[in-house]
Fold this sequence. Notes:
six-stranded antiparallel sheet, elongated, 15 strands, alpha/beta, 621 residues
Amino acid sequence: MLSHLTVKNVALIESVELALGPGLTVLTGETGAGKSILVEALLLLLGQRASADVVRTGAAEAVVEGQWQLGGENAGRVDAVLAEQGLPPLEDGALLLRRVVSREGRHKQQVNGALCTVAQLRAVAEPLVDFTGQHAHQQLLRRDAALPLLDGLAGLDADVTAMAQVYAAAAAVQTELAELRQKEAEKERRLDVIRFYLDEIEALAPEPDENERLEVERRRLQNAGRLRDALTETRALLCDGDDDALTKVQQAQAALKRASRDDPGLADVAGALDEAAAVLGDVAHTLRRRGEVEDDPGRLAAVEDRLDALKRVMKKHGGDLAGVLRAQATLTAERAGLEQAGERVAALEARLRVVVAEAAALARRISARRAGAAPGMASAIEAELPALGMPSARVTVRVEPLTIAPGPSAVTGLCHDDGTPLSRTGSDRVELLFSANAGEAPEPLAKVASGGELSRVLLAVKRVLLQHDPVPVSVFDEVDAGVGGAVGEAIGEKLEAIAGQHRQALAITHLPQIACRGETHLVIEKGVDGGRTVSRVRTVIEEARVDELARMLGGREITAATLEHARDVLSRAAEQRRRDRAAATTAPAPALAVEPAAVEPAAVEPAAVEPARKARKRSSA
């Protein structure tokens, strides 16, 4: 159970510390006193999205802290989550959660003293509290509302998770197949384009840097005459003239050698001249080997044609020859892929048949389990309604095949052999039908139920769900909307019965018929302290509780008769509580009958997920 709750600097609450006990705790107060703030603080502790707006004006940060004392199955489940999240384990069943929100919007979360993320906090808190908000009864009007309820009661959460995984796999294969088929329709046109480009490139057969070499050759051919004159002049000056440079250097070389005999210091100079003579000799040899430069108009035309062809192709593929060669490699690979696309389509079609068969088999198994559990769920809900002032009410849980796959992400074409669509949750539509009056056929809740009836049906559903879900704390935020009088009294009895199922319940209420049923009664009040508005919470007992109940019964003017009425209400509630507890010791909670599946298991490994609550939202707010 939740043993302690501390709230500091959340909206109007400056500091509240609550010691909570087992059974039903009721929270009352005037409208606007801050009951919703306390609920918001608890939701923050459970990992709800937070903003800096929750921080009390003038404070640096808001702090919410809760301590749970857990045992048995609840302790085991929470310890498993803690281990999965890498967080410290329970110590003697104690769990401490802490959430801090700063005015700058920074968040800090702790589990058993260890820092964690909001997602980790939410994962740990998820098995701790079942929250039913003010508008939860409106959720029952949605056509898909009954599906997760039935799945949770039938123990189908793991199968439904596996169904979602198989459906996602089938949808992925089908999407890829559709894309390939679209490409198949465009394949021939694309192949024609690819073949044209590749034929052009392959016919040209370009070589790396070929265009640069051809540009050099073209310049040489275009300027053959000028080049020839320059080479002739160079050879004449260097080595082929009557008084050329090489001859003079050789003469100087001979003279210097003679001089070096008389002056050994000239040996280095003679050596340098030898090197110069050798270089000039090499140059002369190269020039003679080049021979005459001749005009070659035919070769020049061929080079220019080749360069023009290369430029046309380069313009189509990036502007240079490297781009042409890259395009050739890319187009060759694309051509191979397109030519093999037919094989890929056939492989995907075969894969899709296998995955759809797996999904269909799992969906049949789920459908059989749902059909088997639906009558038991309907009977269990119906059995709760007489005590809520609806003795003639009838409930039916209708399970029927889908006609259209639900949701914007539904994939067409995924279906059973008979055409029944498959969806992420199987192939069923589950609807809760209701009739409040004898002789009237049950109809969808949205069609026949009033606001007060919806509130009571919701409470009946919650009572049934909680009988099969060991969550330790249940919170009901003004679920008495639209009711009063005897019906309010019946709702109070039902809330107390829920709290009596070895769990703890917290009810925020405006009805004295519900407030009188609490073993603990908290009152939240708004006042002014030092010029600042603050909300405070106090526990009321004995005469203080009589006064609060009298306020709820009689409004602003409380008379002696109102006080006596409040005492009588509390006395009758206490007597009823004693009778209920005596009866509870001899009457075990009814078990929900679930027919076993009459189909062979599907060839799918269901994901190992925690049953009952992961398929339906913990918070109905």
